């Protein structure tokens, strides 16, 4: 198992291969459909996104209400294909990695390869377990979106699988680039 820390460097990403298991630590930003639409609109309008995308990781997640005494509620991954129309724009703007569940479109895999990114898979159905790896959580943008706001999470040793690597190998396509 490989250990990596955000912000992700080109060198760290190059060392990852589809199928690898990793432990990720550092800052991760949550964003789902509505937040992605707003970020992409800002980029297309030549405005700054709500946080610097360079070297960062976006987790396709909308956390549930935080129970008393906890850092965050359940925070499992959402289906990644719902973000496919936005992901190439974010990768071009410097986003390094995405975390979600399920396969990605050929266009996203191509953008991951072109912009030297990586796509991680989180263990689906394990939102309560994943919350145990979150050390802190705060809203950084679009608070009116509620659970779909952008949150900045500090994670420690979050277990993930490399679903698609920077060479375009994809576990859903039998590792072929």
CATH class call: Alpha Beta
Overall, the morphology is globular
Through-space gap between termini: 23 Å
Low-pLDDT segments? none
State the order of secondary-structure elements, H for helix, E for strand. EHEHEHEHEHEE
Under CATH, the topology can be stated as fumarase
Q: What is the percentage of strand-forming residues? A: 25-35%
- The tally of structural domains comes to 1
Query: What is the structural class?
Result: alpha/beta
Using the CA coordinates, give the radius of gyration.
Answer: 15 Å
Assembly level: single chain
Q: Do you know the CATH architecture?
A: Alpha-Beta Barrel
Which strand order do you get reading across the main beta sheet? 2-3-4-5-7
| Main sheet overview | 5 strands, mixed, barrel
Number of helices: 5
Mean pLDDT: 95
CATH superfamily descriptor: Fe-S hydro-lyase, tartrate dehydratase beta-type, catalytic domain
Share of helical residues: 10-25%
Q: Number of DSSP strands? A: 7
List the helices and strands and how they pair.
Blueprint: E1 2-5, H1 10-14, E2 21-30, H2 33-44, E3 57-59, H3 87-92, E4 97-100, H4 106-114, E5 118-121, H5 127-130, E6 134-141, E7 150-164
Parallel strand pairs: 1-2, 2-3, 3-4, 4-5
Antiparallel strand pairs: 2-7, 5-7, 6-7
């Amino acid at each position: 198992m490989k250990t990596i820390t955000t912000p992700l460097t080109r060198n760290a990403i190059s060392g990852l291969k589809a199928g690898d298991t990793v432990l990720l630590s550092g800052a991760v930003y949550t964003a789902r459909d509505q937040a992605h639409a707003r970020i992409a609109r800002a980029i297309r309008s030549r405005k700054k996104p709500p946080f610097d995308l360079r070297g960062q990781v976006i987790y396709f997640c909308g956390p549930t209400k935080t129970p008393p005494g906890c850092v965050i509620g359940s925070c499992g991954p959402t289906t990644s294909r719902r973000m496919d129309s936005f992901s190439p724009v974010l990768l071009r703007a410097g986003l390094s990695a995405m975390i979600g569940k399920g396969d990605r479109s050929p266009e996203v895999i191509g953008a991951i390869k072109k912009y030297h990114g990586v796509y991680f898979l989180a263990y689906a159905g394990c939102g309560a377990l994943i919350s145990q790896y979150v050390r802190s959580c705060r809203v950084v943008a679009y608070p009116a979106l509620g659970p779909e706001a952008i949150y900045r999470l500090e994670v420690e040793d979050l277990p993930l699988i490399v679903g698609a690597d920077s060479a375009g190998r994809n576990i859903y396509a039998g590792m072929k680039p």
